[in-house]
Every structure is written in C-alpha cells, then in structure tokens.
Amino acid sequence: MPPIQFILICTLLCPILVWHDIVYLPQQHYCYVTSMYSRGLLWVFFNAYGSPLLVLSFIYLRITIFLHRQLNNQTLIVKQRQERDVIVIQRIIIIVGLLMTLGIPAVALLIMFYTTGEEYPLFSRIEWFFVSLSILGLVLSLVIITPQLKSIILKTFQHNRVVPLAGTLTGSIPIRHKTTTS
Length: 182
Prior knowledge:
Layout: H1 2-19, E1 22-25, E2 30-33, H2 38-69, H3 76-101, H4 104-116, H5 123-145, H6 147-157
Antiparallel strand pairs: 1-2
Helix pairs in contact: 1-2, 2-3, 3-5, 4-5, 5-6
C-alpha cells in the first residue's frame, strides 16, 4: 500500500507544481502554498480534507444502507457483528470530526484574509500549530478509542504491586496460639 499511496499523493499534488503555486516564504524559511494563490490552496484543501471526507461519507452511507436492508430476524451472532461494526464506524466519525474541527482556525484566518485583503502575520504558524495539534489528537484518540491499544498502553504504565488482603494489618507479625486439650 505505501508505494501506491506515494504515487497517488505525487499525482494529486502535481497540478500545484505545474501552476507554480508553491513559493518560498522568507519569514518562515520553507516553501508552501500561500493564501495568495487561492487555486493551489483550494486544491490542497480539497485533497487534504475534502476527498477523504467524501470517501468516508460514501463508505458510511453504504454501510448504513446495508445494515438497514438486513432482515429483522437475524441470528444473535450477526446482530452482535453489526453492532460492533456500527461502533467502529462511530469511532471513525468521531476521529474525522475531531480532525475537521481542528482545521477551523485556519479556515477562519483564510476567510479573514479574503475579506480584508491582509494576511495575518502568524497565519502559517497558526496553521501548522493546528496541524500538529490534530496529529496529536489523532494519536490520543486512537489510543483512547481502540480497546486493544488502550490495554497495551495501560499495561506498560501499571506496576506490579503487592496488596495486603482485607482484614490483615500491614507490618504485623502473625502470632501462633498454642491450644491444649485436656
């Protein structure tokens, strides 16, 4: 899959190179598509947010239609599998919603730029901050949402502790009583 993804990404980003929308930003010391080139910015936005969201929405819609077409008299195993699938889809929607929410500040700054004509001086830094924040949020949400991954992480942070039984005193020495029968 990685070679296919690499070829797909290079193919999708070629128009930006052809349009010459990538420029050097001297204040930040890197190359990027600036907000002055709306065509390149819209192309990046569509490929980064739009197309993945459309594909996920299409998949979610198809699964929802499939689940509604199923008969009501299903076996218990099939119902449990479908409930598990719905939970997985809900988790995917939560993660995508989180990532989309963290893109809102950059969109707000972009709208401000197009209405006022002035680019906010820290636009690219704020944009990259929220990109890094969304990656951090993605990692944390994957750990929290995936039960198997959550148990693996929790096992690494739990230490083996000796816990006394209920009713015994800590630090006491057991005493034997000698009983005699007469």
